[in-house]
Specification:
- With 353 residues, the chain is an alpha/beta fold.
- The chain has two domains: 169 residues, Alpha-Beta Complex (Quinone Oxidoreductase, Chain A, domain 1), CATH 3.90.180.10; 138 residues, NAD(P)-binding Rossmann-like Domain (Rossmann fold, 3-Layer(aba) Sandwich), CATH 3.40.50.720.
- Strands 3, 5, 6, 7, 8, 15 and 16 form a seven-stranded mixed beta sheet that branches.
- Helix 4 links the parallel strand 9 and strand 10.
- Helix 4 packs parallel to helix 5.
- The protein starts with a strand and ends with a strand.
Amino acid sequence: MKAFVLAEPGKVTWYDAKEPELVSNGAILRPIAVAPCSSDVHTVFGGGSKKQPNLVLGHECIAEVLTVGENVKDFKPKDRVAVPAITPNWRDKSIQENNFNHAKAPFSGHQLGRSQPGVFSERFLIPDADTTLAHIPAEISEEQALMSVDVVTTGFTGAEYADIKMGDAVCVIGIGPIGLMAVAGAKLRGAARIIAVGTRPVCVELAKQYGATDVISYKNGDVVQQVMDMTNGIGVDATIIAGGNAEVLTQAYDMTRYGVGTISNINYFGGTGYLPLPIFSSGRGMCGKTLHMELAKGGRVRIERIMELIKYGRVDPAPLVTHHLYGLDKVEDALYMMRDKPSDLVKVMVHCD
């Protein structure tokens, strides 16, 4: 079975992988369309924890069900489904403590392409179909469904953990695909003013479409000072970090209101060492600001609810797909596109049929 794998750190290849073995609660699927993301780029080129040899990459996918295990109730062969990027073990007892993403072990919710084979192969296994897979409504396009499984849910997670209230002023740092969906999520949650921080023209225009009232750039001066000037020196009620290096945490603290402000991080920080926490804007430890740092929400119910939002016109993630490639073998090209980020790229979709 042809699969796109991590051969060794910094090197990918095509590999004759072992066929997935069906389990009683699981389903074997074939990809209809996939999308490499920045996390795949980090996995291949950014180091991180050691991975198993020839790990099949990928966690953004819509697929056709081929076979199901004897205990599967809600899915059958030929069903078209969205495969969530985050697949918690819903049967672990820590789930009852609301520890969805880290039950039993850190990042246990992030399994595909990390601790179990991913979706960049001719066939793949989802071990628990009924709790994981999401039915795609007939009204939802393939582009919309594919963006739901990771990009939309991650951006919305950032907005949810930012605790946005009606009328709030919000800043979104980084307006790649995740940040753009954080902008859309902030608007849905009732934010009044949404300040987006970014420079690439294609992302700036999309940020405005998704609800940004202002877009600022480091090219026009210090972004913290720009935000403080725009808010009469008070700062924003919530800051969502969706991109940038370690210094963005300091920027977020600097621009967020004392006493009631919330900082929500959904950004990946590579390498090791420390994230700097500013002494002054953290009020020397007494600023009254809340920091949340979390992995995206996943699972069947989450993705099906997001697709309901799409179905009824609350959000349309299809414009995030700026490039289309055809054939599973184009996944490699798509990965390098996501690494190199051409100026007109937001997301690339690989059609596997």
